[in-house]
Each structure stands twice: as C-alpha cells, then as structure tokens.
Design goal:
This protein is α/β, with parallel strands linked by helices. Helices cover 43% and strands 18% of the residues. The protein has eleven helices and eleven strands. A seven-stranded mixed sheet has the order 3-2-1-4-5-10-11, with helices on both faces. Bound molecules: 6-O-phosphono-beta-D-fructofuranose.
Length: 321
C-alpha cells in the first residue's frame, strides 16, 4: 500500500539550508499526494507530541533563512527505551508511516536504532556543517559554514599581517577537522591542527621561530575545536616562542546565516530524493553528494567514522605555505 502520511524533523546542530530542505519535503511531498507533518525540536517533538500538519503556505518565505523553522535539539531521552517507545506511539497515534530526518551522523545513528526496534521507515537528509557523514563527500550546510569561517579568517589575516602577529583561530568540529583543514587550505594558512592528526606543538613553534628569523612574522594556525582550545594553544606558543600570539574562537557564527546557493541547491535535491525514497518503500538510507551525484548510503555505513583524504589536504596546506 502506498505511503500516505510522512513526518519531517530537523535534529542535532542546525545547518544552513535546513529550511530549504523542509520546504522541499513539504511542497514536493504534497505534489506527490502525501500529507506532510512537521515535527518540532527533533526527536523531542515525537516524544512529546509536538507536531502539526504542514501545507504549501507553512513553508513560505523560508528558503533563504538559516536555522530551522522546525527548531532542533539534541535529545538524550530518545536514546532510552522509554523515549523511543513514546516516539513510536506518537507516530502510530498520528498515522505517520515514514519520517525524513534532516541532520548529521548522530541523527542517523538514532534513526537507525529506532528503525531496528520499530521498523518505521526513515530516510536521512545529510545536513551538518561538520561534513562527517561517511560515504558522502558533501552534506548541505558545510559550504555556507566554510564561507563564513573563511570570511572571518580573511579579516583576521589583515590584522595578523599588519601587526605581525601569530593567530590561533578555533573553528567548529568536535570530532571532525573538515572545516579547519579546508579553511586553512582556502585561506592560505600556515598550520592546521585537527582531531584526525597528531601534532607536535614544539615542531610548530620551531617552524615559527625559524620563519621569524627569515623575516616571516605573521602566522595563522587553524584549530578544530576537538583538537584543543585556542586560548591554551596560543598561551603555549607565547611561552615557547616569546612572540605575540592571539587566540580567537569563531564558534556558532559558523552555523548561522543565509545559506549559499550550493547549500540550498543540495538541500533541495537531497530532500527531493528523500521523499522519492519513502514513496518507493526505501528506508535507513542517508542522502548526500558523491562524485557530483545525489547518492544514497545505507545508515549502517553512513554512521561509521568518516574516511576522507586528511593527509593529502594537509600536505597541500604545508606545500602552499
Ligand atoms: O553541529 C555540529 C557542531 O557545530 C560541531 O561542529 C560542534 O562541535 C557542535 O555542533 C556544537 O554543538 P552545540 O551547539 O550543541 O554546543
């Protein structure tokens, strides 16, 4: 029997383009004769029955907005048996036969556990600024976050060069160095420290001092938040080099703002594919971009630690410095 009613939720950290994805699920779903229900605050909304039917106009005027009109949350309660059971009961009560999860790999892990227990079809739309969904080259939102971080970094470079200082710039990524490494590459930075690679601060300081002797005084070191704290590393560099070093943390500005054209385009195409998947009876698949194509990856693979070319990119950062 054809699926009639679906739910859509955003969960985990927000990612620019989520609204464009919600709008697509709603309007493309309605175009395909589905009833689409919006679930608020991610899994929390399923547990607490915070959901309502959406129509064409529910998603008017949101395509260019960052954040998510559905709100999002991290929901430890959904990891409990009781939480999952309540979410399932809500879905049954409202006759929702499939869900579209807009989020990252933590969201898909939760969705996968839920599916294994209750067999409610669910499809993931890869949305995270961390770009850490395994098997997928690009999630949506990461392009906007990269551009936001790069814009800040370019500005920092102006003052770093003018005042001949060392800067440690902390970007987001608790377990992922994707933003850090790519911003360092695109921003022409001297060094990058990420969770995926071991680093030696003494070697870095040695290079700084050597450079300093040759007349190279300003340095930008990009740091992923999961690899340390900017303040702490700046302090240690100060102590080891005796050079003026400043720390700056970009933080949550990287998650906000108007989604770029690429983030919106990917959000729209992933969300369309997710609706098609539910219509065709598919489940536990994450949608993302791979080799320029919209691709489906089984949740089982998507939630593994992401494999990507860390060493190749790091080498390029260093060669081009
Ligand atoms: O959504 C991903 C992310 O932005 C990570 O890069 C970061 O470590 C984390 O979320 C921060 O989460 P929160 O806003 O819940 O502190």
């Amino acid at each position: 029997m054809a699926i009639k009613r679906i739910g859509v939720l955003t969960t985990g950290g927000d990612s620019p383009g989520m609204n464009a994805a919600i709008r697509t699920v709603v309007r493309y779903g309605i175009y395909n004769k589905l009833e689409v229900w919006g679930v608020f605050r991610g899994w929390w909304g399923l547990i607490n029955e915070e959901l309502k039917p959406f129509d064409h106009r529910s998603v008017s005027g949101i395509i260019n907005q960052g954040g998510t009109i559905l709100k999002t949350a991290r929901c430890p309660e959904f990891k409990t048996e009781e939480g999952m059971k309540r979410a399932y009961e809500t879905l049954k009560k409202y006759n929702i036969e499939g869900i579209i999860i807009i989020g990252g790999n933590g969201s898909f892990t939760a969705g996968y556990e839920f599916y294994k227990k209750y067999k409610i079809p669910c499809i993931g739309v890869s949305a995270t600024i961390d770009n850490d969904v395994n098997g997928i080259e690009m999630t949506f939102g990461v392009d906007t976050a990269l551009n936001t971080a790069l814009d800040a970094l370019d500005k920092i470079r102006d003052t770093a060069t003018s005042m001949e200082r060392i800067f440690v710039v902390e970007v987001m990524g608790r377990e992922s160095g994707f933003i850090a490494l790519n911003v360092a590459l695109a921003g022409g930075c001297e060094e990058v420290i990420i969770p995926e690679r071991q680093y030696n601060l003494e070697t870095i300081c040695h290079d700084i001092v050597e450079g300093n002797l040759r007349g190279k005084i300003s340095w930008i070191i990009v740091l992923a938040e999961g690899a340390g704290s900017a303040e702490d590393i700046a302090q240690r560099i100060r102590e080891m080099t005796d050079l003026e070093t400043r720390a700056i943390t970009l933080g949550h500005i990287q998650r906000g703002g108007r989604p770029t054209a690429l983030s919106r385009r990917l959000a729209i195409l992933f969300a369309k594919e997710a609706v098609d998947c539910l219509i065709h009876g598919e489940s536990v698949k994450a949608i993302g971009l791979k080799k320029g194509e919209i691709t489906k990856v089984d949740f089982e693979m998507a939630i593994q630690k992401k494999i990507w070319d860390v060493e190749g990119l790091y080498k390029m950062v260093k060669i081009l410095t």
